[in-house]
Amino acid sequence: MRKKLIAAAALAAALTLTACSGDGGNGNGGGDGGDNQVEVFTWWASGSEKVGLDALVKVFGEQHPDVEFINAAVAGGAGSNAKAALASRLEAKNPPDSFQAHAGAELSDYIAAGQLQDVSSLYTEFGLTDAFPKSLLDRLTVDGKIYSVPSNIHRANVVWVNPAVLEKAGIDASKAPATMEAWIADLQKLKDAGVETPLALGTEWTQMQLFETVLLSELGADGYSGLWNGDTQWTDPGVKKAAEDYKKLLGYANSDYAGLDWDAATQIVIDGNAGYNVMGDWAEAAFQQAGLKYDSDYTTWPVPGTDGVFDFLADSFTLPVGAPHEKAAKAWLQTVSSAEGQKAFNLAKGSIPARTDVDASEYPAYQQTAIASWSSDTVVSSLAHGAAAPVAWSSDISSAIGKFGSDGNVDSFLTALTDAAKKALG
Amino acid sequence: MPARTRKPLSRIRSWGPPLLLVAPTIVIIAVFVYGLIAVNTQVSMTDRHSLQPATRFVGLENYFALLTEDRFLHSLWNLLIFTIVFIAGTMLFGFLWAWLLEKGVTAEGVFRSIYLFPMAVSFVASGVVWRWLLNSAEGDRASGLNRLFESMGLGFLQNPWWSDPTWGMAAIALPAVWQLAGYVMALFLAGFRGVPIELREAARMDGASEWKLYRHVIFPQLGPVALSALVIVSHMSLKVFDLIMSITKAIYQTEVPATYMWVVLTGNDYAKAATIATIMLLLAAVFIVPYLNYTNRKEREGR
Amino acid sequence: MTAAAPTSAALSLAPAARTRRRILSRTAKYVLLVIFVVVVLTPVYVLVVTSLKPPADVNPATSWGLPIRWPWEAATEGGPTGFDNWTLAWNALAPSLGRTFAMTIPAALISSMLGSMNGFVFSLWRFPHANLVFTLVLFGMFIPYQAIMTPLVQMKTTLGMPSNVVTLLIVHIIYGLPICTLIFRNYYESVPFEILEASRVDGAGMLRTFGSIILPISVPAFVVTIIWQFTSAWNDFLFAMFLSDTSGGPVSLALNNLAQGAQLSNYGASMAGALIASAPTLLVYIILGKYFVGGLMSGSVK
């Protein structure tokens, strides 16, 4: 599960670094020569992520016993300072062998600066072109090239539902509303039934995630994906409709949302003070921790209007240009993408594998539903988690959303979104 | 300060050795303050908006773009609200505490130490507890100050604190006031103590009431101290970063130039980050340069 | 202030009434002072109390109360206790505590040493335009460090400096120079001129004068700068965030990660962490408070 890491998504992209730190020198390859070690930077230093990484490293040790794994994990997602340091380290041509980054557009700055190697040949070599869903490959491919290997997948367009709350208004939680309108009508019913905050919401990035799912609902998978390459105009009436719907949704949210972290927002649903919360599937851990049972105490569905679409975000590993131990780095990427590696990692971390050739029955109840959707749904990229837009663009959108949260002015919101797109797409 | 001449000394000793002794500092400051400021300014005038190197000199283009940008103006507005509350709060409490403690208070040292202690704590540490105190939930879910108000029967005082769109920044200033009011108190206390005893006694002899003594004799003496406090507190306000990062993280609602610069830099827009930084420097200079001038002049007069 | 005529109040009040009024105003004063003490200490109360509550006992309704179960009571029932917060916080911060000491102490000593040399020159052994140079040095203490941060980060990378406390140590020495210089300069301003005269008559050079006459009397100023530098380097977050990472950075960074990087907010552990991270500077403040204030005051230039 990912937590605030994600909160810092806009920042955290590459908090990978550290290289130069402490035991320094590894990054330079130096006297060791050879490909008997691999220096890997991640932000998986605690909790289930650390457990996941350890499991992955164990598999790596079995698959490549001759390569020593050098763990350069940097604790805490808030250590996003590393971004600046990593950027300049790459610039100084002193990269680690591989670093963790969100898959997708967040890599585009590095790609544009020529700091990442194309790894699409590895996809062929490792048979990933068949193992990964076609629509994921489409999302990862930039001008015919792929720059990272995803290790795990999360889904962003999930509504977490508390059936007990819905019962107060006589709403059946097991059936998802078919459209955004139907959902808004249900929200109103809840409000009328005396539920003060039908929808739980949190701080800026969770608002961004809610907004992206509304966009997705309004524009459909193709229309939504088109926003990020210019095929869909931000002046499209669908965007305006999405902004208006989003504004309505804000009207059903807890008034203090700006000040809550995602877990505090999810907690409102867990405590039975709100009916719904749109959150990535790392929220599963919060429900588990509270001892709730899937399907009876809580349930999930895709955000209304996004059924059949999988709004994905992923962690992935890269191969920087000039990696000192390139062969070892490829071995690492091989393990990351292998069936054993993905299974070991994702079972421990609570996410799902990027590969579709997995036995879902080995996973817990919620993950099983996600795995089923993953292999059949259309995959689109999450905005709030760096997959859809480069860092600067997401930051512009994020601030527009922050502003909209306080003034609720649809027109100036749309102008800000259009301007941001113009700036980013040139 | 008693007049005393140093001239003979400097005439006798050549100025070589002393210059040599401070040379390391001069070089370090020249490089790490002025040199880096120059580099920063230079970057701010290029088109280095990504990881790629700059391709051309753009003059003041980035400055014009920034100063017409809503988001930046919003961050300046936030900074202004923060600064006003911060300055007013620290000056008010600092002055009040100093005045209360100024004379004849038993256990004065204890009070003073308590008022001043938050200064020894980092913003990151105090941010942890203030994030809790300024929790914006109200009613059943309320905790922090809102809960306290409610349980004291002051429920109407509950408010969303920093998540209020208009006045949120004023709430962020509360922890800063808590942290630095004691500092201003210490400055004022020194000011009070610096008032010559004779002045007080002369006024008493004239039968002035306590209030008149303060109003006409002592307060006017505190001008320079108040000025120092004002300048120091305002330049601290300009730098506020740690506190916001630890209470709200970098979000639009509480964005000030310092956190905006951080967001921009992590988005690899070096030119824009440098531009914001230069504007911050100019804002600081507006306070600092005249103040340094003034202190210098005063010192020369005093000598 | 010669004209102030005796006020009518002072004349008309009978001694008894005046005493009563004095007692009243004294009482009011102490009441106010105590109220402010309560307000100032409230966050401390919250920190301590919350850090001692087991996660299960944390809920909004009782958030201001003392722990329902003190850690030792909770311990008898098994399950998590308030001490677990402290263990968690300690484990998160302990690795960085040693590093932070290794950074702050040398940083304080070295910039104090340089500062005393500078202060000596700028106050007692000047050269032409020393005042201008001093002012230019002093300016470095007031700049928003953002203005040098971007190039500094790049410089660090170009030179291959590590993202840990070693780099921060150097940075704190550099940016601590202006204030240390200022403190020593102000301190030496009060050194009697005759001492220098005597040394000059002896024919002692600058270095000998500094070493044998000035340094020995500089102890109080050293205490002030060392405390000041120690505290500000310890509490620094800005440089730490830009120039180091959590695997090699100081305690402020580790605390921020504990408080903000947690998967689910754990206020108990965060608050225990805040107390642990603040303990050294608070101890210094409590033990050497007088000197601490000395450093504060010098921030006001004169």
Task: Please provide a brief summary of the model.
Chain A has helices at residues 4-7, 9-12, 47-63, 82-91, 108-112, 120-125, 128-131, 134-140, 163-167, 180-192, 204-227, 237-251, 262-270, 283-289, 326-337, 339-349, 365-376, 391-407, 410-425; strands at residues 37-41, 68-71, 98-102, 141-142, 145-146, 148-155, 158-161, 199-200, 276-278, 299-302, 309-318, 378-381. Chain A is an alpha/beta fold and 426 residues long.
Keywords, separated by commas or semicolons:
heterotrimer, B: mainly alpha, MetI-like fold, 70% helix, disordered N terminus, C: 302 residues, mainly alpha
Principal-axis shape of chain B equals flat
Written as H for each helix and E for each strand, in order along the chain, the element string of chain B is HHHHHHHHHHHHHH
Largest interface: B-C, 114 and 105 residues
The largest sheet of chain B is: none
> What proportion of the residues of chain B is helical, as a percent range?
55-70%
Query: Main beta sheet of chain A, described?
Result: 6 strands, mixed
Distance between the termini of chain A: 35 Å
CATH class of the largest domain in chain A: Alpha Beta
Structural class of chain B: mainly alpha
Write out the CATH superfamily name of chain B: MetI-like
Radius of gyration of CA atoms of chain A, rounded to a whole number: 21 Å
Helical region count of chain A?
A: 19
CATH secondary-structure class of chain B: Mainly Alpha
- What proportion of the residues of chain A is helical, as a percent range? 40-55%
Q: Could you tell me the strand content of chain B as a percent range? A: under 5%
Number of helices of chain B: 14
**What is the straight-line distance between the termini of chain B?**
6 Å
User: What ranges of chain A have pLDDT less than 50 throughout 5 or more consecutive residues?
Assistant: 1-33
What is the strand and helix layout of this fold?
The complex is a heterotrimer of chains A (about 425), B (about 300) and C (about 300).
Chain A: H1 4-7, H2 9-12, E1 37-41, H3 47-63, E2 68-71, H4 82-91, E3 98-102, H5 108-112, H6 120-125, H7 128-131, H8 134-140, E4 141-142, E5 145-146, E6 148-155, E7 158-161, H9 163-167, H10 180-192, E8 199-200, H11 204-227, H12 237-251, H13 262-270, E9 276-278, H14 283-289, E10 299-302, E11 309-318, H15 326-337, H16 339-349, H17 365-376, E12 378-381, H18 391-407, H19 410-425
Parallel strand pairs in A: 1-2, 1-3, 8-9, 11-12
Antiparallel strand pairs in A: 3-11, 4-5, 6-11, 7-9, 7-10
Helix pairs in contact in A: 3-15, 3-16, 11-12, 11-18, 18-19
Chain B: H1 7-12, H2 16-44, H3 61-67, H4 70-101, H5 108-116, H6 123-133, H7 144-151, H8 168-193, H9 197-205, H10 210-218, H11 223-238, H12 242-247, H13 257-266, H14 270-302
Helix pairs in contact in B: 2-14, 4-8, 4-11, 5-8, 8-11, 9-10, 11-14, 13-14
Chain C: H1 8-12, H2 15-51, H3 71-76, H4 82-124, H5 130-139, H6 146-158, H7 165-188, H8 193-201, H9 206-214, H10 219-235, H11 238-243, H12 251-260, H13 267-287, H14 289-298
